Each structure stands twice: as structure tokens, then as C-alpha cells.
Amino acid sequence: MARQFWANGKLVTRADLAFPEARIALYYDGRHHDDASTRLRDTSIDLYLTSINWRPLRYGTNMLSGLVGHLEVVLRERGFAKVDEPKI
Questions:
Q1: CA 11 to each of CA 8, 15, 27, 56, 83: distance values in angstroms, whole numbers, following the listed order
Q2: Which long-range contacts (C-beta less than 8 Å, at least 24 apart) are formed by 27-35?
Q3: Which of 7, 38, 46, 62 is a good FRET partner for 29, with 20 to 30 A between their CA atoms?
Q4: Residue 57 in 3-state DSSP?
Q5: 4-11 average pLDDT score
Q6: By the 8 A CB rule, do 56 and 41 touch?
Q7: Left if phi > 0, otherwise alpha if psi is -120 to 50, otherwise beta: which for 24?
Q8: In the prediction, which pLDDT does 54 show?
Q9: Is 86 helix (H, G, I), strand (E, B) or coil?
Q10: H or E element, residue 50
Q11: 50 close to 40: Cβ distance less than 8 angstroms
Q12: 1: pLDDT confidence band, cut at 50, 70 and 90?
């Protein structure tokens, strides 16, 4: 589920997907994030999220294949055990 982050009555960012219990904010960064000014803004957002104990995770198109594995690692780092897949 997407999540908005506000500070001082202003929208700071909207994560594409959030895991509130684990305090993880996930972003899919398309090609427009390659621009220097956008990267600077993203860095500012990441610093803000880190300051409120959220972990920002950013993935570009070339990184999507590793998203699930990386997310599992970060969830374990944050104290969430791996869940077995349901048996069908």
C-alpha cells in the first residue's frame, strides 16, 4: 500500500509501497530519477525518512529482479522473520 509522509503540514513524499510495521518505504524510480536535481531531491527525502526511523529502498528498472530478495534481507534486519510460502 502506498503511503504519504508529511512534515510541518507539507507533503514530503509518497512511497510507492510501504511496510508500516517494519518502517520500510519502497520506491520504483523510473528514468526521470536519473536527473541530477531529482537525485538530490531523492537524497533529501531519504535523509528525512531515515531521521524518522524509516528505511527508504529505491529500485530502478534494472534492479527489479532482485527486489524481493533484497526486501527479505531488510525485513530480517528489522526483526521480521522469513515467512514460509503457503502450501497449496
A1: 8, 11, 16, 16, 34
A2: 27/56, 27/57, 27/58, 27/59, 28/59, 28/60, 28/64, 29/58, 29/59, 29/60, 30/60, 30/61, 31/61, 33/58, 33/60
A3: 7
A4: strand
A5: 96
A6: no
A7: beta
A8: 98
A9: coil
A10: helix 36-51
A11: no
A12: confident
Stated pTM of the model: 0.80
DSSP-assigned states of every residue in 2-44:
-EEEEETTEEEEEESEEETTTTEEEEE--GGGGSHHHHHHHHH
CB of 18 closer than 8 Å to CB of 1: yes
pLDDT at 8 over 90: yes
Q: What does the pLDDT read at residue 87?
A: 66
pLDDT tens for each residue of 14-70? 999 999 999 999 999 877 657 788 889 999 999 999 999 999 999 887 767 778 888
Q: Please report, as a single letter, which amino acid is at residue 79.
A: G
The total number of residues shown for the chain amounts to 88
Give the three cell numbers for residue 69: 530478495
